[in-house]
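If you are new to this repository, start here. Below is one unmodified record pulled from the training split, so you can see the exact layout before writing a loader.
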Amino acid sequence: MTGKNRTGVLKKTAGAVLTAVLGFSLLSGCSSGTKEETAAGESGSSNSERVTLKVEVFDRGNSPSPYTITNNWLTQYVQKEFGDPNNIDVEFVPVQRSEETTKLNVLMASASDVPDIVFVYDSSVFYRYAQQGGLADVGELLDQYGSNLKTYLGDETLKFGQLEGKQFSIPGKRAITGRYASYIRQDWLDKLGLPVPSTTDELYNTLKAFKEQDPGSLGGNNIPMGMALAPAQYETLIYSFIQPVKGDLTYSQRYEMPLHEGFKDAMQFLNKLYNEGLISKDFSLDEEKEQLVKDIQSGNVGFWSEDVDRIFYADGTLDNLYKNVEGSKVVPVDAYSNPNEGDKHIKSRYGSNGMYMMIPKSSKRAAEAVKYLDWMASDDNLITMYSGVEGENYEMKDDIPVLKADATQEMIDRIYNAGDMAIISNGKAIGDEETNEKAWIAGFPENNQEMLRQSIDLANTDTVGPIIFGKPIEAEAKYGTALNDKLKVVIVQSAMAKPDQFDAVYEREMNDFMNIGGTELKKELEQALQELGQ
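And here is the target side for that same chain:
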């Protein structure tokens, strides 16, 4: 496939959270740029002056020798293909992924040290920076220098970065919007002569059969349903009970799930599962889901939910289960059903946006920043950043870059940090969603690709997505951290309450949730929802 044709594929479709007490002083450094500085940033560099463009990059501590996070094959590619032709030195500023927001707050408070391109996943953090005057409005710069970027992202994605009609962020484009899938041990079903469950009631009866008849002959190690205090596990269950607030849309933040009708029903069902010994007994201690993965790989779990791709990596959860337990077989299953939604298998989906890329108002290199992102959306650059060199790292098959079977480790190491460098794309967003899914699947072991395809299909079924208000929800920034922590308490206490005490425990914990900010959040969300309908 020629570079021109691949360009056509692209063009066709194109740790703390900020609180209200941070105040304007946090961003005073960012908004202190003089008129002369702003003019310099918008005008761009002259041909005779070599300038430096600073770009944030996540450092995950996983750089293979001889590379570092700031000097590797991809940083060299960027410099050679974008920097040198434009008389720009591209300098990457590392930020540990686990300290994303904390470090960004520090950088944003300093006009001299903040990179020209920064980013964050939390929309409330983006809104706060924009409100406090710390971000450049890049609308005109996009019109002037970002035609490829605008075509690639599309209007729907760009809306995520707008506040009161101004473009204060350039959102990345998410390749895959499906989030979670569920799985069941087919060999356990076969041993008991049971069909694959397709409703919540059928799932409950299947879990009871797993416990009572112990098809894996595991005794005390038998776990009918694997559970952890992690989003992929509890969100999957909760979303099958809650009802959308507008069309097929729900509130966007995780800690806003308790504000949806049906949340108590979800907690009641979780309480039933826990008290009948059908889920992992110590799930409340497993926030990183390390124990859950061990239990699945050991063959102790009959049913579980997970991020749609997580079990399929080479030498990952699925491969290890099959190695450890002879005759084991797993199949994707869409078991949770919502009777209030016509027995649909409701589950959450991602918005079309990835991270929020921002240019601080104090930046003198705003034009260069937009040019860099536009370059990334041009020609074959995004494919190269994700897949390496055609003929060495990958081959094109049906317009999809596929990793060569004989690619050496050296070739693979070239693109070890592709996801953190190709920031306009969250995942391999090289075409429409079907194309992106094919490209994503092609990166997994061949023996797991068909099941991953089935998982994605289920993850895309009957989804509800995040609502876009186009303005900040003040209570999210003010109370989000506390409410997110409290959500976990509500889940754990509701699950572990004795059945005859469930109502009292649930009401007690939810009263606390509402008292620490939930009431104010609910009021503001409902007001924003009403305004959106006008």
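Two things worth knowing about this chain: The two ends are 48 Å apart (CA to CA). The chain has 21 helices and 17 strands.
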